[in-house]
Amino acid sequence: DTGVSQDPRHKITKRGQNVTFRCDPISEHNRLYWYRQTLGQGPEFLTYFQNEAQLEKSRLLSDRFSAERPKGSFSTLEIQRTEQGDSAMYLCASSSKGANEKLFFGSGTQLSVL
Amino acid sequence: AQSVTQPDIHITVSEGASLELRCNYSYGATPYLFWYVQSPGQGLQLLLKYFSGDTLVQGIKGFEAEFKRSQSSFNLRKPSVHWSDAAEYFCAVGSMNYGGSQGNLIFGKGTKLSVKP
Fold it and tell me: Is residue B35 classed as helix, strand or coil in its secondary structure?
C-alpha cells in the first residue's frame, strides 16, 4: 500500500492556460474522488468515479473542468482556460466499495494561477 | 441547506491538557459523521467516523467523538493532548449517495490546533 499519489505537487500557471493533474489511487480501490480546498476552507467535493464511470459531479465543477478515469485506475483532472479563482489545492482520494467506506487522501496538487 | 459549522478557527492548548473541538451540522438525511486531521504537507487522515449505533465513537491517536442528535453536534475530544497533535482538524458530514458512495462529504472550515509546551 503506497498510498494515494498526486502529481505534480505544485503547479504555477498563467491565466488562460490549461493544466492537468494526475491522481494514482491505492491499487485495489475502485472509487476515486476529487476535492478542491481553498485557503481557510474545508475541502469541497468536485466529482467521483466508480471504476471508469463518473457517477457524480458537483455544481461547483464548471464546464472548464473535466475529469477522466479511462481504465478505472489513475485519474486526470483538467482545467481549461484557468482563472485566478481556480487557485487552490486539488485533493484526490480513493476508497474501496463497501458498507464501511474509508477515504484515503493524497497530499494534493497546489495550483497557483497568476 | 446542508452545512457543517466549526465555531473555533484556532485553539491553543497546553500539552497534557484536555481538548474538545466543536462541530455542528445541518443535514436533512441521517448523517454519517467524520473527523479528519490534516498536517502541513500531509493528506487528510481519518480520525474516526460515526455511521450508526453507539453514539460515543473511538478513533485513532486517542481521540473520541460523541454524536448528539438533539444538538446536531459531533464534538471531538482527547483527554491529554500531545505536541504531535498540532494540526488542522476538519469535521465532515455525508450520507449514502448514488452508487452507494459515502465519499461525497461536506466539510467544515476546520479548526487549527496549536499545542503549547
Answer: strand
And the C-alpha cell for B79?
A: 483527554
Interchain pair B101, A48: CB under 8 A: yes
Side chain identity, residue A50: Q
Taking CA atoms, what residue in B is nearest to A41? Answer: B109
Out of A41, A103, A107, closest to residue B103 by CB:
A103
Per residue in A59-87, pLDDT (tens digit) is 878 899 999 999 889 999 999 999 999 99
Q: Do B44 and A43 touch (CB under 8 A)?
A: yes
Cβ neighbourhood burial of A58 (10 Å; 0-12, 13-18, 19+): middle
Secondary structure letter of residue B39 according to DSSP = -
Give me B83's grid cell: 505536541
Nearest residue to A75 (alpha-carbon basis) of A53, A42, A44: A53
User: Is B105's Cβ below 8 Å from some Cβ in A?
Assistant: yes
| B contact residues 68-87, partner A, Cβ 8 Å cutoff | none
3-state DSSP of chain A: CCCCEEECCEEEECCCCCEEEEEECCCCCCEEEEEEECCCCCCEEEEEEECCEEEEECCCCCCCEEEECCCCCCEEEEECCCCHHHCEEEEEEEECCCCCCCCEECCCEEEEEC
B60: contact with A, CB 8 A cutoff: no
Is B44 close to A3, i.e. CB distance below 8 A?
no
Give B5-34 pLDDT, tens digit per residue.
Answer: 999 999 999 999 999 999 999 987 778 899
Candidates B111, B93, B114; CA nearest to B31 is B93
